[in-house]
Amino acid sequence: MTDLDLRLARRAAGSGDELSAILSLVNAPGLITFSGGFPAHEIFPVEFVRDLATGQLASGAQVALQYTPTEGLASFRAALADWLLASQGVAPEALMVTSGGIEALQLICRTLLDPGDRVLVESPTYVGALTAFSGFEARIDAVAADSDGIDPDALAAALAAGPPPKLLYVIPDFQNPTGAWLTTERRHALVDLARQHGLLVVEDVAYRELGFTGEQRPSLWSLAPDVVVQVGTFSKILFPGVRLGWAAGPPALIPHLVRAKQNSDQCAGGFGQWLAESLLRGDRLEPQLALARATYAQRWAAMSAGLSKHLGPEFSWSEPGGGFFTWVTGPRDLDTTALLPRARDLGVAFVPGAPFHAARTASSVAGDRDRHHTLRLAFSATTPDEIAEGTRRLGLLLTGAAS
């Protein structure tokens, strides 16, 4: 048989395996993993799901265990719309259910992107988004960001240079991978630029509800529902065992995403929608979120203490106000990718910084040239005791390599 690699489509041949590598470390024995953005299994609502399944599944089987409409169950979409109105102050004009947030990105790509179309992203950004955009052969340009999120001046410069982009992808709240939290002032500036340039903004709100204090800033979608499509997921705030998310955006766009979904998995799972609707209608989501915020705040405190204790002054890291991640920067001659085999020997895992960067920069200030001396640490799925030991091992690895 001939080598099938020779037959791969161009988009498949160029795709990376970073997400597969991260997911492969779930529950790896003997390993303290700071790699994946996995939620804490200790706070999964196991009793609620058990009681619901044993008490109400028989009467709800025709909904929970059956195919659903492509756009999602009407009753779940109504509950979701009510929650979005309560939490963000805007009722969605158009809303669909997706099989997780990443599927929503795939549907947007399938609907909007032709090969060579320009996409803007903050630098660095979520690996899964870069994979989705590159899989549809987009031209991905990076825009500078800092601890306050994407820089509006750099965005304006990117919009003024090159062909008009099809979309801008941004994670405003406790960003993956840096933990940055876009300021309210920058949020207004961003949507103003989007309106001026006719730019569609894809807002990923995976971590929006997970601020340690519960404080929230206005979502981009609530500020400009005419130019923003919001991509959300229940994987981080409930559990990823059922793949469930949403897309809310302009009424002219969402029906096209629904049609694209008909050509992928046809519909999101009914069981997950049934569970999530029960949580939303039963006022159980807010207590779940409060528990999650407290848990992740405690784990970040342990991570911060461990990094302060075990890393030297040549290292710095972001100080997230929520979410799952911190971004560590070391000396410029450090190569975190080259350290991965040694890290595994020490029983600790992280993700090097390089995969979070687009290949191109949209301007000379994009600031992603020095990629190899950074790394992302996730503190969400490890206990404080594991974090204490894991940061000790990490300190041995990083300080030894930097000395």
Automatic annotation (TrEMBL):
Protein name: 2-aminoadipate aminotransferase
Gene3D superfamilies: Aspartate Aminotransferase, domain 1 (3.90.1150.10), Type I PLP-dependent aspartate aminotransferase-like (Major domain) (3.40.640.10)
Aminotransferase class I/classII large domain residues: 59-393
Cofactor(s) the protein needs: pyridoxal 5'-phosphate
Keyword DNA-binding: no
GO MF, any single term: transaminase activity
rRNA-binding in keyword set: no
Pfam families xrefs: Aminotran_1_2
Source organism of the structure: Asanoa siamensis
Record's keyword terms, sorted: Aminotransferase, Pyridoxal phosphate, Transferase
Signal sequence annotation: none
Chain's gene name: avtA_2
